[in-house]
Amino acid sequence: MPHHRDNFLLNLLEPDVLDRIEPQLSIIDLQREQVLAETHQRIERVYFPHSGIISCVVELIGGGAIETGMIGKDGNFGSSQALDDKVSLNHVVTQVGGTASLMSSDHLRQQAAAFPPFRSVLIKYDQFFLAQVQQHVACNAAHNVQARTCKWLLRMHELVGPDLPLTQEFLAQMMGVTRTTVTTVAGELQKAGMITYRRGHVHIGNLSQIQKWACECDEDIRSHYRRIFSSNEE
Prior knowledge:
This protein folds into 2 domains: 4-139, Sandwich (Jelly Rolls); 144-214, Arc Repressor Mutant, subunit A, CATH 1.10.10.10. By secondary structure, it is of the alpha+beta class. The chain is globular and about 55 Å long. Helix content is 49%, strand content 21%. Strand 9 (195-198) and strand 10 (201-204) form a beta hairpin. It has a 4-stranded antiparallel sheet. Strands 1-7-3 form a 3-stranded antiparallel sheet.
């Protein structure tokens, strides 16, 4: 059975703090391709995933889009907007289905005000997410598609394991490249024995080789996370 502590941020809380906020939390299923927020929509609910992946996507004029942030069991969506009573700046969609703890934005503001350790964890994650977005911007500008694809696969593997429900169309959209480009890169990775691919599904078979081909951005993002949350792990 899913539990609130399956989310890393909630698991950081001391038992007495989690016990106090738990009545305001519920557990829900997140369906694949479920839209959690539209651009400029007011945020009414905050999601703390236990499994699956949430993607924040910038939509471009003309129908294009690119992923700017990936949220899994180590984060949340909606807390920074809820704390400041703001709207979503992105289109937010469930990329891989799973479960999550859910709290209304109003209750989150109340609980964060009542329990400073809870507020501290939320603010730290907001700092990390900004760092992740900045790293994505630098990565998209400086690194080739093959290295970026491997970095993206590493993050997916970290959150959901070696079997990824993933179409080439979706990957192309998330990375801001053409499907033809993704097809070429996927073929190279499959030829090298790093992945196997069939329509709608990717299996990671050689993680160590993917790590070698990836750019440094995945490790940089992990380093940001470790540094920001190090005080909670001591």
